[in-house]
Every structure is written in C-alpha cells, then in structure tokens.
Write a structure and sequence with these properties.
mainly alpha, 1 helix, 115 residues, rod-shaped
C-alpha cells in the first residue's frame, strides 16, 4: 500500500512539475513578446530621434542661409542707398549748372536785346 501511495504521490508531483513548467513557458513566451514589443518601440524612438536630429540640422542650415541672405540684402541696400545719394548729388550739381547756364544765356540774350 505504501508503494501505491508513493506512486500516486510521484504522479501528483510529476503533474505539478508539468503544470509549473507549462506555466513558466507561457510566462517566458509572454515576457519575450513584451520584450520584442519594447525593442520595436525603442527602434521607433531611435528612428524618431534621428529624424528629429536630421530635421534640426536642416533647420539650422536654412537659418544660416537666411542670415547670410539678410546680411547680403543689407549690404546691397546700403550700396543702393549710397549710389542713390551719389546720384542725387550729381543730379543736384547738374541742375545747378543747367540753371547757371540758363541764367547766363538769359542775361546774354537780355544784353543782346538791349543793344
């Protein structure tokens, strides 16, 4: 009888061991699935970070180009203003010369008319 009891106890233990092993395998599989999902999330986050860094690099380059364009535009405007100022001075000088010539000719004509 004791032998039967031991055999029954062994079968119970074998059944418990099989259940524990099956449960452990299921938990291991679930954990592996979660690990795989987290690895996929990490890769996505790494990709997003790289894309953001690339976008930041592009934005910085564009900003630098805009700053260069602004500097060049300011220089160009200064040159245009300086040229405009010089042209105004020349035009003013020419106008004064023309006015002086007109006055001189008018005076010469007036003198001729009085003779």
């Amino acid at each position: 009888m004791e032998n039967k009891e031991l055999k029954r106890r062994i079968k119970e233990l074998e059944y418990l061991i099989a259940n524990v092993m099956e449960e452990s395998k299921l938990r291991e599989d679930a954990l592996q699935d979660r690990l795989n999902a987290e690895q996929i999330k990490c890769k996505k986050i790494q990709s997003d970070i790289k894309n953001a860094e690339d976008g930041r690099f592009v934005a910085i380059n564009e900003l630098n180009q805009i700053e260069i364009c602004i500097k060049n535009s300011k220089k160009y405007l200064e040159q245009v203003e300086q040229s405009t100022h010089e042209l105004c001075k020349v035009t003013s000088t020419d106008r004064k010369w023309v006015e002086a010539e007109v006055l001189k000719r008018a005076q010469a004509q007036h003198a001729t008319d009085q003779k």
